[in-house]
Amino acid sequence: MSFGLVCQQCKEPLQIDHSLVDLAPSAYDMIVATLPSTSDLMHQSRSSNNTKQEHPSASKVAWQSSKGSAKSGVPPLSPRAQGKQAQRSGPLPNESFVILQDSVIRTIPSPTPSQRTKRNTTQSRSNTIDKGRGQSPASTLEQDHANPSPLSHHLRSTARLFNLLSSRTDIDHPLCAECTQILLSNLQKRLDETKKERDGYIAFEKEVRKEKEKEAQGLSKEEAERKIEKLKQEEASYIEQLKEAEREREQLDLELRQLELNEKALEEEEAEFWRTHNEHLLEAEQQASQLASLRAAYATGAATLDKLERTNVYNDAFCIGHDGVFGTINGLRLGRVPGIPVEWAEINAAWGQTLLLLYTIARKLDYTFEHYRLVPMGSFSRIERTTGDKANYELYGSGDLHFGRLLHNRRFDIAMVAFLDCLKHLMEYIKSQDPNIDFPHQISKDKIGDVSVKLQFNQEETWTRSLRHVLLALKICLKWATNGTNG
């Protein structure tokens, strides 16, 4: 049951403990006996009224500090207690208290005339008891128990107890459990601080007593003078040490400034070093890039050179092969057989390529023929004799049927025999340079192998076979000239 009571700190409704509801007169007397008397309170109020205004009592200080505990964080409060403290509008009064009527706290129904008469009678009796100091609180409780009305009796009993507590202490009552716990925590903290302060005062008092005892003993004049002289010497020594320390400090300051200058110079030097280092790194990177590019170009050039070195341009310029029974040079057939008509223009062009090949090999080997000079002129090539009558022999034929053709074919045969003689001398030169080389067909006068190169009085198949032998010998000579020791 709450009886309409609220906490004087957080203004929350209170639930009266059963021990207070059923409070016995002896317990009431025990509580009152532990409280300070009214005369002591009045004497303390008169003697230290100004002091109280400047220095409130310990309980009030603890209670005011409990108000700010939510800000300071010591001790920690529950959300309910913080809400209760937030509802408070101002500090408690220092020297007085106000008893709030029940009608202020809550709305009480208007009493009936009989109840009003009874309440007035009860209030007048209570006031009379409070004013008269001769009657004890126990007798007051006995009078309340004599006329037991549950609600009014408990309300008067608890209200009287709370009024008495509020009048004898600095804290308004009643209080809730949480506000009481906050108050006790702050009072305990205040007590600990006071104990520490007391211990400090006790230690200071001991020091003062020791000093007084020393002064009481007293010193003689000579001892005092000796002590003063000793203190002066110590002072001079300390002053000298201080001066020395000052000089060392100035020296250290000078060294510090010098070190700062050196540090600044080193920082500038370091910055310059890193700038130069970065430039070198960039330059090295560029050179590495150029070197990689040059190496790649070199590798490409070396590969191209190796490919070109392996490439035989003479084989491409003078491609010697065969087409059935015909020997070919650059696709031109050299020779004639019955049933396969080969134009003389093709044969003459083939002889022109053959003569050009012999001329190229001799020039590559730096070889000069003794009796003949080769004049490659395509389909109208010829061979000039450099000794004797110095005649010119045409190395091309004709298919015209007249008397001049016979003379022309005779000169054509002489040109082919002269070509065979030049080829023979070139083969002998190559064999002299490389005895390991072997030619399958030997040349003797107008024959190569066992067939003659003359066209007159000769079969076309035989003539074609001899020309094939000529191309084979030229191919061997070309291979040696390009891939042999002279290649």
From TrEMBL:
Keywords: Coiled coil. Residues 41-51 have a biased composition (Polar residues). One of its GO terms (cellular component) is phosphatidylinositol 3-kinase complex, class III, type I. The keyword DNA-binding does not apply. The keyword Coiled coil applies. Residues 174-300 form the Atg6/beclin coiled-coil domain. It holds the Pfam family APG6_N. InterPro entries: Atg6/Beclin (IPR007243), Atg6/Beclin_C_sf (IPR038274), Atg6/beclin_CC (IPR041691), Atg6_BARA (IPR040455). Residues 41-93, 105-153 are annotated as: Disordered. One of its GO terms (biological process) is late endosome to vacuole transport. One of its GO terms (molecular function) is protein-macromolecule adaptor activity. Residues 308-482 form the Atg6 BARA domain. Residues 177-272 form a coiled coil. Signal peptide: none annotated. PANTHER family: BECLIN 1 (PTHR12768), BECLIN-1 (PTHR12768:SF4). Belongs to the beclin family. This is Autophagy-related protein 6. It comes from Agrocybe pediades.
